[in-house]
Amino acid sequence: MLMVLYLVITSSLLVIFLKIVSLMIAESSPLNREELTPYECGFEHHNVSRVPFSLRYFFLTLIFLLFDLEIVLMLFMPYVILSNFFALGLVLLTLFVFILYLSLIYEWNDGTLEWLS
Amino acid sequence: MLILCWLLHCLLLLLSVAFFTLFERKVMGLFHNRLGPNKVSFIGLLQPLLDAFKLLSKQNLTPLRSNKFTYNMAPHMALILALFVWLTMPTLYTMLSMNYSLVMFFCVSSIMVFSVLLAGWSSNSKYSLIGSLRSVAQSISYEAVFSTLIVLVMVLLLSFSIRSSFSMSSLIFIPLLPLWIICTLAETHRAPFDFSESESELVSGFNTEYSGAYFAFIFLSEYAVLLYSCMLISMLFFSWLIPFNIFSYVIMTLLFSFLFIWIRITFCRFRYDMLMMTSWKVLLPLVLMLFVCYVPLFI
């Protein structure tokens, strides 16, 4: 486990090294104001451009969260199947997938999956 | 020793990504009936290296009113995570033997969404914000499908590592291949699912405000992940070819990277709501059905 940490630190040092190289060889002409403004065409940009996103988007992320949680519960299936509970594991797996399917159909019927409404 | 080995691995990986861009440009030139880059040195072979040098030597800008720390962190994060994914590659020399490499891939690829989100949100431009929101919605909905597929593969392998697929039994995965390719295309934001950087609507998507080294980092990370997915496909689905020819997995990786370029050239971009609908209403039920279809194989 510690080895993975060392390797990740190595690769991050490599990336930071690349950035330092670029800071050294990058051209540094005096900055003018136009270069620092966000990319726009034709008009002056003068306020924060973070728009609020739609509630639909939020719903979709919630559904994703639930689905991913349920999938993470299935992650231990190889161990269950390899253990003594082979048949029971398979039955439970099928049942679990069936429940997932039902929840998907429920969301579909509820209309949360529609992107346009 | 191991750290030096990994460093060499990273450098070669970055080099291969650079040459993959040359490959892509050449193949696109071939398809468009033109030559592609052919001026730099012999038939344009030095082009990617000089491109990288040029990108690194460009001015480093941080736009006004952006969140400076997040803006600077996101590209680093993208590239570090892309290199991190490659740790899970099973190699012939035992660099690091991972028993949970598929789970590792699963985790790291879901963290990668954050680098796109942070990059788009912090640069304070409408184009990048909308691009990042779109790409996050897309990766999220395809990740639900993709993670179910990965769990299905794990259940079939009865193990968590990519290495254990090295047998003839990987032939049974072949029906999953089309689904896997679609999910990979959506996860790596390639055409026809390239909504994070749809040039005709949003200038360059979430990386509109990035230039120079940071743009190079984002670009490298995307292509590194693409190459990794090609490698993963050839490892999981075509490892039964390895007994015939030891280099078959390299050849399959190259073939699949060619396939991704081919798809990029052939198909036009999806409509956005259709993309989301395909993921939730077609692919997810299909994957759950496949799950049930594969269960009788155990008995």
Spell out the blueprint of helices and strands.
The complex is a heterodimer of chains A (117) and B (299).
Chain A: H1 2-25, H2 33-36, H3 55-73, H4 77-82, H5 86-110
Chain B: H1 2-31, H2 47-56, H3 68-85, H4 101-122, H5 126-157, H6 177-187, H7 212-237, H8 248-266, H9 272-294
Helix pairs in contact in B: 1-2, 1-7, 1-8, 2-7, 3-4, 3-7, 4-5, 5-6, 5-9, 6-7, 7-8
Organism (chain A): Brachionus calyciflorus
GO cellular component, one term (chain A): NADH dehydrogenase complex
GO molecular function (chain A): NADH dehydrogenase (ubiquinone) activity
What's the short story on this structure?
Chain A is mainly alpha-helical and 117 residues long.
Descriptive account of the structure:
The complex is a heterodimer of chains A (117) and B (299). The model of chain A has no long low-confidence stretch (mean pLDDT 79). Chain A has helices spanning 2-25, 33-36, 55-73, 77-82, 86-110. The longest helix of chain A has 25 residues, at 86-110. Chain A has 117 residues and is an all-alpha fold. Chain A has a domain at 53-110. By secondary structure, chain B is mainly α. Chain B has one domain. In chain B, 64% of the residues lie in helices and 0% in strands. Chain B is built from nine helices and no strands. In chain B, helix 1 packs across helix 8 (248-266). The model of chain B has no long low-confidence stretch (mean pLDDT 83). The chains are: A mainly alpha (117), B mainly alpha (299). Chains A and B meet through helix 1, helix 3, helix 4 and helix 5 of A and helix 1, helix 3, helix 4, helix 5 and helix 7 of B. Chain A: InterPro entries: NADH_UbQ/plastoQ_OxRdtase_su3 (IPR000440), NDAH_ubi_oxred_su3_sf (IPR038430). Chain A: The chain crosses the membrane at residues 6-26, 57-79, 85-106. Chain A: It is an enzyme of class 7 (translocase).
